[in-house]
Amino acid sequence: MQQARARDPHERGVDAVEATPAGIKLASEGTGPQGKPIHGGYTSEFDGKDVPWAGNPMGDTACANRVDDNAYENVWKKGGKAVVTAKVAFSKDGKTLTITQTGTDAQGVAINAVQVYDRQ
To answer: What are 64-104's pLDDT values in tens digits?
Structure first.
């Protein structure tokens, strides 16, 4: 399964994500909503356990669970409270990635975002 992280919709940057034997590893570089640089990442197994997430202004932990061979769900938490749920799905042919995010940002504004990426 290929991997990706749903990005904070207020953030711009690049994610490098790779599959690990039991989950995902993410490294992120970008610029946050106030124009400040963001550097961070995490390594997570698909075991439902929270792992520290450095550099994410919207969450301090991530909790990934595999849905099936082509999808997983990632819950972002801040101070132990779930703030964003990202559902990540890859098409069976591996050419399209769809990320659906729901939750609340740091200012209390509702997030309902769908991002679709086509492999070039």
So the answer is: 999 998 889 999 999 999 999 999 888 999 888 898 999 99
Cβ count within 10 A of residue 102: 13
Contact between 99 and 6 under an 8 Å Cβ cutoff? The reply is yes
pTM of the model: 0.77
Rounded to whole angstroms, the Cα distance separating 120 from 98 reads 15
Rounded Cα gap, residues 20 and 96, in angstroms: 21
Q: Which one, of 65, 69, 73, 61, lies nearest residue 101 by Cα?
A: 73
3-class DSSP string for 37-94: EEEEEEEEECCCCCEECECCCCCCEEEEEEEECCEEEEEEEECCEEEEEEEEEECCCC
d(CA 111, CA 66): 22
Residue 104 tokens read as 């609340």
Per DSSP, the residues of 16-32 read: EEEE-SSEEEEEEEEE-
Q: Give the model confidence (pLDDT) of 14-24 as tens digits.
A: 566 677 788 88
